Each structure stands twice: as C-alpha cells, then as structure tokens.
User: What shape does this take?
Amino acid sequence: MGFRILVIEDEDEIADFVVRGLREEGYAVERAADGEEGWHHLKSAAWDVVLLDWWLPGTDGLGLLRRFRQAGHGTPVLMLTARDAVSDRVRGLDGGADDYLCKPFAFEELLARVRVLARRQAQATGTKLISGDVTADLATQRVERAGQPLDLTAKEYALLVFFLRHPGEVLGRTRIYEHVWDERYDGLSNTLEVHVMEVRKKLEARGPRLIHTLRNRGYRFGGEAGGEA
Assistant: This one.
C-alpha cells in the first residue's frame, strides 16, 4: 500500500475515528493501544508517519518518543494530547516531536498535518513508485501515466500502489484483498474485481493494458501475461 502510518492511542473511540478516516484516505494504518505495544510496532516495522498520544498506559508518549529518537529513528511524529499549555508543547517538540495537535481536534486538521509530514518524509526519502510509464507519488497520492494524471478513488489508489509495489508478481485475490481492504476475503465478494476493472479502465485510457488477469491465480501488473482470462 501507500504511506504506512502507526497510531499509538489508548482511547478506543479516538483511535477508531482516526484509523478509519486515514484508511478511507488510502493510507495503510496500524494501531497500538499502549506504550509497550507501541514500542513493539515501532521497532519491528518501518513507518512513514507516527501519531502518538502523550498519555499512554505503561510508558507514556513522551518517554516512548525519546526512546525512539535515541534509537536513531527520524520518522516524523505527530503528538496528540489534551495538554495544551505552551510549556507542554515545548516539552513535546524538544522531546523529538515534529508537530503537536491538541485534543479535541477536527479530522480535517489532522489529515492536513499528516499530509505535511508525509511530504516532508517523501522529500527526505524520495518515496515514489515508478513502473514503466506509471508513477505514484506516495506523499501527494498523485498518480500519472505517460505524464497525465489519473483520477482515482482512495481504494483504487491503494490497489494500484499495491500493484506497483509488486510488479511482475502473481498476486492472488486473497493476498490483494487482505492487504488493500484489511479484511478477510470470503471468496464470494466481487469488490476486488470491480475495483480492478475501474483501475484498468483508467490506466488503459493512457496506454496498453498493465493489469492482467491470470486464470485461477489472480493478477499480474506489467509485462505480458500468459494465461490471461
């Protein structure tokens, strides 16, 4: 998928609201509910942006942030907290946060701040996916083919990015569905087929076919596809 975001937040209502909203925007999101679980996620995978609550069970957010920075990680971190005093904001920023957002907050503002951090991370890492004449900028979520922009929905974007991350591979329906929709594939839904058809249509408006259907196996992105159904 696209940018990977870790949400470390112990309040279920806030976490569900944030995770659901970010996933609808096409981001790949995981959640941790306390400091120790958060640390496990931080050290076991690479993240593009971290949303970190200050008050957490066990290790608090500020302690976790300092530990993360001391380990040499430069991933952008947005602190989420009800502590709105200037002195608290200074402590958070001095502790290694890149930005600071006070609760309660509007999702639109959270999303705007995430986009800023994502652009900063992309500039630092050069995070673009390119396959042939198709380019996806993971920070801006802009996709082009042959230099022309493609108008994709959030799920179409997430699906195409997954294909771009695995060019030439045979990708089974279950694997695609569980990565892009973050749900178990029941073998009955035609959601994947509908989205593939839409993405294929938009890509083929700019050039030859890139998403090939392989009989009884799934899909392959790019190149020729023997056994296409």
Observations:
- The mean pLDDT is 87.
- The helical segments are 12-24, 35-44, 61-70, 86-94, 107-125, 154-165, 173-180, 191-204.
